[in-house]
Amino acid sequence: MSSSSVEPPIQRAVAYIVSQELCKISSLLPSNRQRSYLVHALINTFRLTSRVEGRLLKLVPPRPAALKELGAYHTRDYIDYVLDDGAVDEEDGDSSEFGLEDDCPRFRGLSSYVQLVAGASLTAAQTLLKPSPLGGIHFDIALCWDGGRHHAQKSHAAGFCYVADCVLLLLALKRAPVTQEGRKPRVMYLDLDLHFSDAVSQALHTPALHTGVIPQVLTLSIHHSAPGFFPLSSLSSLPDPSSSDFSPFSLSLPLKQGASNSTFTRIWPSVERVRAAYKPDYIVIQCGVDGLAGDPCGVWNWSLGGEGGLGWCVNHALQWPGKKVLLGGGGYNSPNAARAWTYLTSIAMDDPLPLDSEIPDHKAFPLYAHSFTLDVPAGTMQDTNTESYLSQVEVRFGEVAALIEARDSLGT
């Protein structure tokens, strides 16, 4: 065999968690109808699932989560109620108790949705923990764009979220084998959604007066903050090491109205320092896109491309040591969500699409008016994140990173 016929080595092996059933059931979600269809259709239309020399994107179908797996976090009463398809047309007091009202109404297919979305995120974890039975592939990155439901609580739905797939995923990664250094694996959860990751942060919160052992999970949510903005949480403030309830492993980085690429460029070194101090073995990135310009939330100026853009941030995180999971999340301009997660898929494959790429012709093509390109450009509102505030963020997170480093140096 001539040397010219030998394929170059695969640089990244990426597992893409998807199936027709997952796409169909996720497209029924009341807050994001048909979004899943748009996302997976655009990824396919850009032919990202086709084999190209030096890269590999493997489609991995999810399996429904078993009751025992859901019970790793959720209460049995909640599981039984949310999986009861017979109650879809009933009105009773339990609907209120379990949060199945207002922004989280019951819908036909809910039980399948809960089990498949949870199963998809658990499948993402499994692809990183064990070689694939389909060819023995060792995956570096897993993509689960239908996951990322970060508001679902232990015993009730909230914020368009019916199942805590993020929490279940983190708990699964915690159970990974010990590292070569002989310590338990560490998992960093980085949430880029416009809204604070209240349920995830609360579920994995480490009390300030912990025994001193470094916890296996660190959570960091970069989010919008304003009086009355959802969700309200005692954990959503800028970390204050002088506070009695401070924990360097349950972190929040609140941003103000109009956060733009320049703001994300300014705060990113703080994220990098926390990561370097904690030394995670696995990184889970919730890639909510409701902070992009053009989203109905209308709060940030964030763009898909450019220095400090969503793609720039995710690309930087993908350079970190360790295996990664990319999740979906919020995003209520569905064509823009499809643009963003298609672009992030190409970044995960280390072969980013040009942002001026024209949307290929397919059934959903008219929805991409008026630009008919992949890009989601920045907004024009004033960025109210002042240099004074961003300097405060830098100082606080420098203190946090130093505390993590000190704890790590003690070997605890």
UniProtKB/TrEMBL annotation:
A GO BP entry: heterochromatin formation
Main localization, broad class: nucleus
Keyword Hydrolase: yes
InterPro entries per record: HDACs (IPR000286), His_deacetylse_dom (IPR023801), His_deacetylse_dom_sf (IPR037138), Ureohydrolase_dom_sf (IPR023696)
MF terms (GO), sorted A to Z: histone deacetylase activity, hydrolytic mechanism
Family: Belongs to the histone deacetylase family. HD type 1 subfamily.
Name recorded for this polypeptide: histone deacetylase
Lineage of the organism: Eukaryota, Fungi, Dikarya, Basidiomycota, Agaricomycotina
